[in-house]
């Protein structure tokens, strides 16, 4: 690989979107755990 080759990283908006989707996935997983706990308590 040459020093003049472009870096193999996605554009900034794509990285921001990936971070947002990761956060949404974590929130969804936490919500599922809380829902299971609430359903188990009842």
UniProtKB/TrEMBL annotation:
UniProt keyword terms in alphabetical order: Membrane, Transmembrane, Transmembrane helix
Annotated transmembrane regions: 21-41
Pfam families in alphabetical order: MmpB
Protein name: Uncharacterized protein
Classification of source organism: Bacteria, Bacillati, Actinomycetota, Actinomycetes, Kitasatosporales
């Amino acid at each position: 690989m040459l020093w003049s080759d472009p870096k193999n990283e996605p554009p900034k908006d794509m990285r921001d979107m990936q971070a947002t989707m990761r956060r949404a996935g974590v929130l969804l997983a936490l919500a599922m755990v809380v829902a299971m706990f609430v359903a188990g308590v009842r």
